[in-house]
Specification:
- The protein is an all-alpha fold.
- The protein is 72% helix and 0% strand.
- The protein is built from 6 helices and no strands.
- The longest helix is centred in the middle third of the chain and has 37 residues.
C-alpha cells in the first residue's frame, strides 16, 4: 500500500480542533444563517419590535387626544355661545370685548 501524501494536511493541522469538528461547523453555519440570512433574522425582529413600541406609544397618545377632543366637543355642543365669544371674539351689540394676552403663553407659542 502506498501512503498518500495530502498537501493540505499541514494546513488542516494548524486549524484548532473544535473548528475541524463537523458538528461544530454545522452549528456555527446554522446560527449564522438564522442571525443574518433567514427571512426572520435577528435584525428584522429587532426593527419590528422597535416599530411595535413606537406604534403602541402612538396609540396611547391618540387615545388620550381622542378623550380630550371628545370632552371639548361635548363642551362645544353645550356652550356654543362661550365658544364663539372666546374663539371668534363675537359680542352682543351693547358689549365691549377686552382681549387679555398672557405674556407667558405668548412666549411659549413662539
Amino acid at each position: 500500500m502506498a501512503i498518500r501524501n495530502n498537501p493540505f494536511r499541514p494546513i488542516i493541522k494548524k486549524i484548532p480542533a473544535p473548528f475541524r469538528n463537523k458538528y461544530f461547523l454545522t452549528i456555527v453555519l446554522f446560527l449564522a444563517w438564522m442571525i443574518f440570512f433567514d427571512k426572520h433574522d435577528m435584525l428584522t425582529n429587532f426593527k419590528l419590535s422597535q416599530t411595535q413600541k413606537t406604534l403602541e406609544e402612538d396609540l396611547s397618545f391618540y387615545k388620550k387626544n381622542i378623550k380630550e377632543i371628545k370632552a371639548d366637543r361635548l363642551d362645544l355642543e353645550q356652550n356654543k355661545e362661550k365658544f364663539a365669544r372666546e374663539n371668534y371674539y363675537m359680542q352682543k351689540s351693547d358689549e365691549d370685548v377686552f382681549i387679555i394676552v398672557d405674556e407667558s403663553e405668548k412666549s411659549q407659542q413662539k
